[in-house]
Structures are given as C-alpha cells and as structure tokens.
Amino acid sequence: MSLSAGSQQECDSTRVTHRSSRPLVLALSIFTVVAPCGWGCSKPSVAVRESPAEKQSPPKPTQSVPRVDAKLAEVALPGGEISDVMITQWIEGGALRRLRIAGSDIDDEALAKIAASVPLELLDISDCPRVTAAGIDAVSRIISLRNLRVSGSAVNDESIRSLAKLTQLAALHLQQTAVTDSGIGVIASLLKLKELNLFGTAITDRGVASISTLPELEKLRLRGTAITGDADEVYASLRSVVDLDLSETRFTNAGMVGVAKLPNLRQLNLWLTQVDDDAIAMLAGKHSLTLLNLDNVAGITDRSLDVIAGLTDLELLHVGGTSVTAEGLEKLYGLTRLRTLFITRLGLTAEQVEAVRTAMPWLTRLEG
Asked: Is the pTM of this model over 0.90?
C-alpha cells in the first residue's frame, strides 16, 4: 500500500458513449503517488495489505470511437483500444494534459504522434505490451512531463538514457522494468524528482547509491528489489526522504543504521523484511514517524513495543504476523495519536482484541 497521495485539480467530468451504448469513461481521477507498495491494507490511501492484490485485466472497449470533448484535460482508458481517430481528437482538442492508458494497445507510432503535438503533464503507459524502446524515446520528447509511469522489459538500461531529457519530472514510476544498477544512475540528473518507484526491479544497494544525491527526493519505493541494506551509509544519505518502502526485500539490521539517521522520515514500510528487535531499537526517539509497517516480520517481539510506545506521533502501526503477544500490546495504550492498528495473525482471542479496542477508544480502525 502506498499511503501518501498527491493531489491535482479536477478536470471536466465528461462522459462519452460508444455507438453500442457501452460507456468509455474518460474520467477525472485523483493521482495517488504510490504504486503498488505492499502496505498490507485493502485501501491503499489508508490501509495496509497483507499480500499483493492480484492484477485484473479490465474489459476491452468496443471498436466504436466516441467524440472527445475538446476541453477535456484528462483521459483515462485503462486497458482500452487506442485508435487513430482518438489520437487525432486528443491532438486537435488542445486541452489534454493527463493521459492514463495503462494496459492499452498503444504503440510506438501513436506515442510519437502524441509526443509531437500534446504537451502532457502526466502519462501512464505501464503494462502496454506494444511499447518498445522506440516508444520510450518518443516519450522523452514530451519535455512538459511531470509524472511518468512506465513498465515492462522495453524500459531497460539503454532506453532509460533518453529519459534524462525530462528535466521537469517530479514523479517517475519504473515499476517492474528491466532497469538495473548499470542504468539507474541517469536518474540522478532529474533534480526536481520527488518520487521514484523501483518496485520489482533488480536494483541493489549500489543502485540506490546512484540516486541518493537527488536533492528533492521524498518518496522512494524499493519494494521487491535486490537491496539488502549492507551499505548503511547509502541509506543515511537519503536525507530528504520522508516515505521509504523497503518491503519484500532481504533488508537487514545493517541498513537500519542508516535509515534511523534520516531526519525527516515519516513513513517506513518494513513488511516482509529481515529486521528484528535490534533494528527497531535504532528508531528510539524517532518522533517524526507517523506510520510504521512491521507486517509479517517474525523477528519483532514485545521488546520492540517498548521502543514503539515512545513514538508518540504514530498514526498507523502494523504488527500483524509478528511475534508480539497480547500482554505486549498493553505497552501501546499510551499512543493517543494512533488511529489505525493492525494486530492480525497474532493468535489473539476475540476478548483480547476487544480489550485493545476498549483501552484505545480513539482508534478509528482496529484489525485483529
């Protein structure tokens, strides 16, 4: 789960229909800055998932092509079929700024046409199988882009080089791409980057070191990468980061030495990592933390709760699937700012869960 969200202005909520009366929704949506993040909840903006959600392929629209309102600033066609007529409408309309077509059948030629004529600010072409390195090169010519989402093997160490032209980028999602340590260094030239998602890539600690100099980086997603944390100084250098996702990795206590030194850290996801009580001890006095996810970290016991009890600004805590006991949970009763608490898979009885609820009436969500 990604728990932080960006905001953007609403677009005209224009609805158009196929001749077959089956709607294509060209919808306004709120841009959530996270990509799949593994926070263990069913609602990405609030909660933590205990396992990654299965991807579902949205239904394909019919061949009929609606007329697009020339004033439409945002188009969302996930999984859609992109026709030449649509592209012409987007170009002639002149107002399009945000194009969300993840999973669509768009190809390199269509992207080249869009890149030449539409000053997009946001483009999501993740999971688009017909996009090759040539398409990525075309995208690199949309110099107005501030938010780019791409995925797939076409995004590799060679093709990513062209993205260095996108100097206005604030958010870059390279989720499940073929980018490695050898190519990621080019991202260090994107000095306005605030969010970087490397979920599911082969990036290691060495690759993290390559981008650690980004001066405005605030959100870093390293879920499912090859990091271990052995180079603790690398993580200590991520000084501007406030939201760090290390989930589903072999990250160990060694890396926590650097993480604990981050001055502005507010959200930390350690779901399915290899840390233990000694790692959490390094967070003692880390009052900047508002969210801590320890889901399925077996090395976490009641000893960690002594430290967590002192993190008085916590708003969300996940200790499900750890080695915490019902008696240990009593140490958390002083966390009056806590609003969401996950105590699932701890072997608690209904009475023990209810005792926590009674002791912490300020909780708006308790999962046990």
From this structure: no
